[in-house]
Design a protein that fits this description.
Helix content: 10-25%
Structural class: alpha+beta
Strand content: 15-25%
Number of strands: 13
Bound molecules: ligand L6N33NVT, fe (ii) ion
Shape: globular
């Protein structure tokens, strides 16, 4: 078994990087603590910011061609851990590139084929996340680059369980999401037996992993849908900051922070004390995936002040309209001189806030997407909205129900596809992802 080690110096060139003695120790979420801290101090872990790793530091890393040490820029050396309590790609800081791909098991494929597939996928993910070339004939697409924060995250859809004879192990959390009145969902681009999320700070590293995952599916599974996304590149901003979406808003500020006492409980399935038969989900999380089109032609016509009223936050810095900076608590009761609420009753950030939803919270970790111009001449662009929670009924569902009833943003977005996946905990050394489900 090949272990995964931390790369020396990693992204420590960021001005805000920690000098903590155990800064290279793996942190929750499977990325070195130095990377988490180095990305944006406390805010990194919180807001899953991008934009930090572009410092001038260099590090020595093993060349992906296996020809001895090569000097890589700091971005390339950053390495997420394959093994750990949770799979990587959940609390990992946002990466610049993302691919989401869903598969259906091929006719005739059952538990045996699925088990072999998860073994192959895990091996590939482990090698590539460590920055090593694949055994056999590697395509070479990622030669010269380091792991570049690559994460490959695997999930199971509701239909997987019937197809593999594991219906008794299917968690109730995978019950279909309710219909929402504003849904315009394309079933062919929704759900799937298996889901893989790939993220990396280099486009070629991400593509290389995507092709490897597709190839290893072999005859066992067929691609159901694929979506490609992006975020800001690390180092593009003067200082690390929360990312922006394609509407130009600072997006991610209100995310639960790993430093909060209830973070683990909200985002991850407990390691002990869960329902009988669901032990395989210990340390896992449920991912809700929505492809949300932004109606950018309409949005961009709206004056800045009205755009800000739709969200309840300033565009320039993401601060609440009630004042302060990005991380100041919004004052939801504050009225202006005209007696009206400063943050309107239909403002997106008011309606989605945990305190308005019985504490319901989720960790949003999206990618933007742009798939050109649709037949009707408008941009096919928006958000690959991915949110993580221990239970969708205490995360996405109540919040989306409320947004569906009266969110000012809903005039400018359209939910076009949907998926719900059970993402098991991270594999232990020597294990493959999902082994505790498939071999129990
Ligand atoms: C059901 C969950 C949510 C969907 C769907 C959703 C879509 C969506 N959101 C934005 C932009 C922003 N959202 C912001 C905050 C925010 N959004 C949700 C949930 C959903 N958003 C939550 C739980 C929160 C946090 C609320 C809080 O804690 O106060 C913000 C404000 C900044 C921030 O906190 O991130 C923006 C901007 C878009 C563009 C979008 C669909 C395309
Ligand atoms: Fe939102």
């Amino acid at each position: 078994m090949t272990g995964v080690t931390n790369t020396p110096s990693s992204t420590s060139s960021s001005p805000s990087s920690s000098t903590s003695p155990d800064a290279d120790a793996p942190a929750a979420g499977g990325i070195s603590r130095r990377r988490l801290l180095g990305t944006a101090g406390g805010a990194a872990a919180a807001g899953l910011v991008v934009g930090a790793a572009g410092g001038a530091g260099v590090a020595t890393a093993v060349s992906s061609q296996g020809e001895g040490p090569a000097v890589l820029a700091s971005l390339g050396t950053a390495k997420a851990m394959f093994h750990g309590k949770h799979q990587a790609g959940i609390t990992t800081p946002l990466q610049a590139r993302g691919h989401l791909i869903a598969f259906d098991l091929a006719p005739g494929s059952g538990r045996k084929e699925a088990t072999a597939l998860l073994r192959r996928w895990s091996e590939v993910a482990q090698q590539l996340m460590a920055g090593r070339p694949l055994a056999g004939e590697d395509t070479g697409v990622a030669f010269d680059a380091g792991p570049s924060s690559l994460t490959v995250t695997f999930g199971f859809g509701r239909t997987f369980f019937d197809r593999t004879g594991l219906t008794a192990k299917r968690p109730v959390e995978l019950d279909p999401l309710p219909d929402f009145s504003s849904d315009r969902l394309d079933a062919r681009r929704s759900n799937g037996d298996l889901w893989v999320q790939i993220g990396a700070d280099d486009a070629l590293v991400a593509f290389h992993a995507l092709r490897a995952v597709q190839r290893e599916a072999g005859d066992a599974a067929r691609v159901r849908w694929q979506m490609n996304g992006f975020n800001r590149s690390p180092g593009a901003t003067a200082a690390p900051m929360t990312t922006r979406n394609l509407m130009g808003q600072v997006d991610g500020t209100g995310n639960p922070k790993p430093s909060e006492p209830d973070f683990e409980k909200r985002i991850f399935v407990p390691e002990k004390g869960g329902p009988a038969g669901q032990e395989w989900m210990a340390g896992g999380s449920y991912a809700v995936v929505r492809r949300i089109r932004m109606l950018l032609d309409d949005w961009e016509k709206l004056p800045r002040g009205e755009q800000e009223a739709v969200i309840g936050r300033r565009k320039k810095d993401g601060a609440p309209l009630t004042g302060g900076d990005e991380f100041t608590e919004p004052d939801l009761q504050k009225a202006g001189p005209n007696g009206k609420l400063v943050i309107a009753s239909d403002a997106h950030s008011r309606i989605s806030a945990p305190e308005q939803n019985g504490g319901a919270a989720m960790l949003r970790r999206p990618f933007s997407y742009h798939d050109g111009i649709s037949a009707d001449g408008v941009p096919d662009a928006g958000l690959l909205f991915i949110c993580w929670q221990a239970d969708p009924m205490r995360g996405f569902v109540p919040v989306q129900r409320k947004l569906d009833r009266g969110d000012a943003l809903s005039k400018f977005i359209r939910h076009e596809s949907s998926g719900l996946f059970a993402v098991p905990g991270g594999p232990r050394e020597g294990e493959y992802v999902g082994q505790r489900l498939l071999e129990a």
